[in-house]
Amino acid sequence: MQLAQKVIIADDHPLFRAALKQAVMQSVPGVEIVEADSLSAVQGAAEQHADADLILLDIHMPGAHGFSGLVFLRGQHPSIPVIVVSGSEEPHVMKRAMDYGASGFIPKSAPLEVIAEAITLVLQGEEWLPHDVEGVEDLPEEDYQFASALASLTPQQFRVLTMLTEGLLNKQIAYELNVSEATIKAHVTAILRKLGVHSRTQAVIAAQRLGVEPAKTEL
């Protein structure tokens, strides 16, 4: 007997999570749905549900910092396709999402039937975009290289890098993660080595290249 498909819905807006849930249930009969409201929550869900068939990811969620969450999820869980769901509908944002490994891009303005169509196609192994993005420039090679390096971080190193981009000091990060300051210093050293940079400031600047301007409208 075929097992029910499993979809992780990651969005910090309860109303939009409910809308996505409705679209998923409409397109995937008997689906099992796992909900997450932050990047750390979706990371935990992906680790716990490694057999998931799809992740629907809002790139403006707490902790997401633009495309960094997408890049990290694709690196840690390459077998789970990701559809980016966003209020940012500019063609260059869609192109960057696909370049960073997304299997689809759904604008938050899309009607339920369109969202359901996108989900169905991606679950069938296809890609889906609301419109053509030909003519949009490819990512610079250095951005691909940085994304590959970012994907090589461990989950804890990624959390530390995220906190560095928020301007937290080592002792503040240690407090938040309930570990020693020496442990954080070791993580920072490993992060700098993996990212090929020489200072915290360079690491933060590099990570900010993955940023996305906040969407103009929210649900």
Automatic annotation (TrEMBL):
Q: Name one Pfam family in it.
A: Response_reg
The Response regulatory domain covers 6-123
Q: What is this protein called?
A: Response regulator transcription factor
Tree of life domain: Bacteria
> Which Gene3D superfamilies does the UniProt entry name for this protein?
3.40.50.2300
Q: Which InterPro entries match?
A: CheY-like_superfamily, EvgA-like, NreC/VraR/RcsB-like_REC, Sig_transdc_resp-reg_C-effctor, Sig_transdc_resp-reg_receiver, Tscrpt_reg_LuxR_C
Q: Which residues carry this modification: 4-aspartylphosphate?
A: 58
**GO MF, one example:** DNA binding
Q: Name one GO biological process term.
A: phosphorelay signal transduction system
Q: Which UniProt keywords apply?
A: DNA-binding, Phosphoprotein
Q: Domain (HTH luxR-type): give its ranges.
A: 146-211
Supply the source organism for this entry.
Nitrincola tapanii
